[in-house]
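Response to reviewer comment R2.3. The reviewers asked that we include at least one raw input/output pair. We reproduce the pair for ABC transporter permease here without editing.
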Amino acid sequence: MSEIFQRFGKTLGGIFLALVLLWLAGLVLVPGIYMVNASLTPRLPPALRGGPEDVYVLDNFAYLLNHPNHGWIFFKTIWSSALVTFTTLLLCYPIAYWLAHVARQWQMRLMLVLMLVPYLMNEVLRGLAWYIILAFSGPLNAALMWLGLLDEPQRWYGDGGVVAGMAYAYILFMLFPIYNAICTLDRDQINAARNLGSSTWRIHWRIVLPHAKVGIATGCVFVFMMAAGSYVAPALLGAPGSRWFTQLVYEWFFEIGNWNRGAAYGVALMAMCLTVVLGLLALFRVNLTSAIK
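Raw output as returned:
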């Protein structure tokens, strides 16, 4: 905080700080408190609110635990989000290393342009593009049949399609933190390890990965949080049997109209996501301040 006042002065720094606090209070704190309060209260008509029945209960959370399918969908969403995170990490790490220490300037610029151009469209259009690719008569089936790998078209929608669509949608949120971390690694360390006889695998395991752990942790946190809270990709690419937990939250709020139960589902998802994020930071031995810098 003192750095803000030193850089911008007391007046301008105070304005920036006030805007940040206003943003946190209006868009994070107040809605969060409202959701927690709504999740702990029963659904009552306006005439009964504030009466003897308007007390804090855990019925909305108990409904989630006791429902035969919703609990499974909840943990499947967390597991699938972790799979999306792991998939994007496997895709982005070699690309980030290549961009940082192998690619020439023109190759790096060309690669970044090619990866950024699709993101000039919004997430819905990119989801529709994957919907067309995975369609029964789409280009994926046509290519596989042309190569002789399929005898007849297959339906690719479902959990696999959702994971593929999300990995594509959030790949840059994994790539750039890892790339920024690897860029700061002195290439002489890699050359010295190679000259001393270290294998490529050992160089990455002992030098590159420890140096890039902050970027990896940051990318994993970003991708996991966005995947767990995504609605567009599961709605477009999911099958009837591959529902995402955010779809249940949407149904409680906007189709059924039970905001209390929808808030409980949202709070449960938020609590689980925070638990997983803190676990990731502990796994990489990175504090939250370093991850969000």
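Residues 68-292 form a domain with the MetI-like fold fold (CATH 1.10.3720.10). The two ends are 14 Å apart (CA to CA). Further pairs are available on request from the corresponding author.
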